[in-house]
């Protein structure tokens, strides 16, 4: 109960405020977009930059953390894809969005603030590893499957190149790399720069949660409920369970590495699943419904995960 009251309730309380702000028309679409851009382009990159610049890197990084997390994510991606194919008889492009809806976590707007709140600065390095590889692994896979369905052989290379360039220009990825390189070089941040990064980065948790709530209020509720419920179950139940099996019995991870990798897997579907679905006109309604339902249901699943680790 203390976990629910101390961590989960305030986090989802801020998210609910953002949702209500849009529904009550306190904020319009332009204000929400500005807040989301601030979080993605300034607050999160500076938080990760400063955290990694000051972080005392361990002598051995648990690279099996990536095998645990993405082994689970790709397995769920495949199960969700088969769900679209065998149960709902969707074309391959829709199946790809099913896969992304099942395997793509909300790592930034939700995972980052929850993990930092629950586990503190010690969680920064494993968070960095997951976020750093998350988009580069799952986004090109989804795009490739969509292009295969639509016969775009030449377009596949073009789309893959565009995605890689977009990832390379991503402020969050750049913030991670800058902080990591600063740490490796042993450079001490000048006082004023360090203070600016601290002040802006300190707004990440409330602003990210508020922005997510506001953004969710803007997404459509259209889409079939049955596939969304199955995808939500894969995301919130199967994904963290698979990751725990890989992390503990298979790879023998311990301590903060296990907590971060399993809790991140328990995050709801990320907004990119809907954005990809809308962009390629492939099951956007299912993706939107899955994102909304999984975010609401994650109040329970995240509470359970945090309670188990606190116990």
Termini, distance in Å?
11 Å
Report the uncertain regions. none
Give a quick account of the main beta sheet: strands, pairing sense, barrel closure: none
Number of DSSP strand runs: 0
Class based on secondary structure composition and strand pairing: mainly alpha
**If you average the pLDDT, what whole number results?**
87
β-strand percent reads under 5%
General form: globular
Helix content: over 70%
Counting DSSP H or I runs of 4 or more residues, the number of helices is 14
Rg calc: 19 Å
Please tell me about this protein's structure.
The protein has 311 residues and is an all-alpha fold. The chain is 81% helix and 0% strand. Helix 3 (64-87) runs parallel beside helix 6, helix 4 runs antiparallel to helix 13 (271-280) and helix 5 (107-119) crosses helix 10 (204-216). The longest helix is centred in the C-terminal third of the chain and has 27 residues, at 284-310. It is globular, with a radius of gyration of 19 Å. The termini are close together. The mean pLDDT is 87.
Please outline the helices and strands.
Layout: H1 2-23, H2 29-54, H3 64-87, H4 92-103, H5 107-119, H6 124-149, H7 153-168, H8 171-185, H9 191-201, H10 204-216, H11 225-250, H12 255-265, H13 271-280, H14 284-310
Provide tags for this entry.
mainly alpha; 311 residues
